[in-house]
Amino acid sequence: MPHESFESALERLLAEQRHNRRRFVGRAGSAAFASTAFAAFLSACGGAEGQGEKSGTRTSASASHPKTAFDEVVFSNWPLYIDKKVLKDFKGETGAKVKYIEDINDNQEFFGKVRQPLERGDGIGRDLVALTDWMAGRWIRLNYVEPLDKKNIPNEANLRDNLRNVSFDRGRRFSLPWQSGMTAIGYDSKQTGGDVTSLEQFFDPKYKGKVTMLADAREAASFVLLLQGKRPDEATIDDVLKAIEFVDEQNRKGHIRKFTGNDYTGDLTRGNIAMAQAYSGDVIQLTADKPTLKFAIPEQGAVLWSDNMMIPQKPRTAYGAEVFMNYVYDPEVAAKIAAYVNYVTPVKGTQEILAKSDPKLADDPLIFPSAEDVSRLSGYPNLSVEEEQQMNEAFEQVAGA
Amino acid sequence: MTRRPLRDYLLGFWSVAALVYLFIPIAVVIAFSFNDPAGRFNLEWSGFTLEHWKHPFAVEGLGTAFKNSLLIAAISTTLAVTLGTFMALALVRYRFVGRGPTDFFVFLPLATPEVVLGAALLGLFITMGLATGFATIVIAHTMFNVSYVVVTIKARLQGMDTHLEDAAADLGANEWTAFRKVTFPLIAPGIAAAGLLAFALSVDDFVITNFTAGQTSTFPLFIYGAARQGVPPQVNVLATMLLVGVLGLMALNVLAQRRRARAEGAAVVPARAMVQPGLAQ
Amino acid sequence: MGLRRRRIVTPYLLLLPGLAWLVVFFLLPALNQLYVSLQTGNFEIGYRFDWNWSTYSDAISKYDEQFVRSLRYAGAATLLTFVISFPLAYFIAFKAGRFKNLMLLLIILPFFTSYLMRTVAWQTILADHSFVAERLRDVGLLGEDGRLLATTKAVIAGITYNFLPFMALPLYVALEKIDRRLIEAATDLYASRWQAFWRVTMPLALPGIFAGTLLTFIPAVGDFINAQILGTSRQYMIGNVIQSKFLVVTDYPAAAALSFLLMAALLLAVFAYARALGARNLEEAVV
User: Fold this and answer.
1) Do C248 and A109 touch (CB under 8 A)?
2) Which chains touch A (3 or more CB pairs under 8 A)?
3) Residue A401: is its pLDDT beyond 60?
4) Which site among A79, A284, B45, C229 is 20 to 30 Å from B144 CA-CA?
5) Considering only CA atoms, which of A320, B127, A369 is closest in space to residue C35?
6) ipTM
7) How far is CA A355 from CA A83, A179, A335, in A?
């Protein structure tokens, strides 16, 4: 197998083609095309990240999603957030399967995973995602989501009034809450020797090394802001930064055992910690495993957040997503979900339905907070993109994430 | 009839203790595959059951992840072994300009932390605008496996006599024929070992995969996600099955080697090469 | 085209596919990291390449703690792996006889279980109220309020455990290669067993020690799983920071800068080692 030099190979090629000019031109032509394409590719390499202007001008106020048939709805959600029976019932009623993927463990982590296709204007293989308020706001700002065709979601009228006009999505053009929840203190009453009623107990030195906080800048800062008597959703960036400094101090002292994602549940169950900054529904669910676990909204208050359903750009079926949203906004279905996940449902009329089948749940203030409770609840701090970056950087130094 | 000195017993004791230490977590992993956990967390022993062994893929997403891992491993191993074997041959059997630096360059990925490799690859894919997913995982795994394969097979080649190949050349065989009929059969055990190593590394890789996976799920990625809410016992079952599978393949390789050695008669391959550690087995 | 020309060209042909793969997917990404690290911006406004060297100075000043910590942990773990592995490797090379291959197999076998599963298993073994922790409390080695998990000790122990074969195997190879007759000769020349060990065995094992140290220390510096699963943010290593910056915060320029710095620093170390011993020795010692 002789090895030719490039020149001799080219000579041979030209010689072969001499009597068929057209073919040669074609071949050279395609070579030229290939090289131009390659050159274009290379130059695209240089500035691929400069996609400042986001794709999509899908900001039409009223969307129209035709009722095309669908056989599957792909929904990315947080873990332990649904009664799987509801999915089966949905299939029974509509004939369509719900592909339910529990791959959201952290807002930023999920965003990191799907950023690239979103930036390029591609779909992410999902018809629905559920993201927390501030991340939902980011997706809406960046035009990564489809507007909702409310004609397909008549049950949207059941949305609680206090959730209708949120700052990141006035009039709920793009999102509908999946569940709401509260971040407060989950604790092992055996280790704390009684009930926990105040954030000051959380920072009591006798629990040094036996408490965990969430590895989320907003959550951690809000905890401290509440302790200091400020409403998180009215706090300035300076307040937030000072709060993070406080957390840093506590961490360096060793008071905070570690910063966690959803995995504080493991430490609570194993008895490694006495208290955790925790999510309401999680702890209620854990109580079944370990009866001494309790959840408390301290007197200083807590943060109320929602995870919001949205339709990412280029879904396979926007109509299917909307049918599903409509389905879960039926109070009967919402009651089933609430009974299972123990979070705060955004759907009106659920409490009355549960009162008939499970009065204990209907009376649980953690699932149906009273008006008085709600007054003590606040949203997350509202920050601009630059302020968000400042907050994240500061918190990164503290929690390493 | 000399008695073994105390020193030898102490060394032996230490060695056994070290080996036991190595196996403690493995024992825990295997043991908990038989556990019947009370709640979400498979952390405390609460009862023996064979349930998870009967339905190892009962957990949603685990089957897909496991399948992906095996597929990725198969593809990347094949690629890496092909590329790597040829490289190893070039590096050992030929002298050429740039051999030293190439040697060093091929060795580098082994000595680079995985986080650096993964981050760099992701950076490249982002700059090129390449979508991360199954294909990018395969690319990444092939990359680091090539280095392992080259190093493993080089060791095998270096320990080998060239007499047989020289004899083949003397008898008029050209290079390709000599490779096919003499070299390849001789290094086949080394290739098998390298392939096994590459396969195991690919199935178990977490860090680099985490960077390049996009939305694709693999077995280690699944475990990482599950670790936050409690790893289901089915994962322990699959991990144990993998372990047993690899052990089985290794045993087969050794048996094949033994049989071949007996068939070859006199030790063409020096004794030393026979006793190479697991990497070059 | 003669045989001779073919012989000259063959190695290059054999090398080409594999080498090309490594160049594109190992070298190029490394260079690309440099490129990305000099960009400014965030995901909202896009990134611009503008020779932004300040990212590097920021990275060094903000994360020097994690850098140094990574070196300390990796150093400690490397030392520990050496202490555990050397007698083990010595025993297998010199005293194990027919159990040699079996013991080597036993060293490698655990590492065919998932890295993550092994580390999570340590979480169970070292939990606050586990068998191990309780026994240590009984003996008084652990305070009443003390814990094993979520500590620096746990992280170093995890790294030590996970990198053991990377030290043990090169050590074994080097020891195994030593010509026994040299040691015999030493004792024939009236050296005591101890002297023979120090003056003959150890120096000959040196390439293995260097190789083992290299293959353990360097990957360990970049490890982050042990710190994440067995430790807390107070134990976070530079690997944790890089992982977080890339995948969670998505601050690509800073992440790339850190990653490039780490890689450059370690490559320098490898290069220095290779020069000190001769690259060939390094390779031989490894395999």
Assistant:
1) yes
2) B, C
3) no
4) C229
5) B127
6) 0.83
7) 19, 19, 10
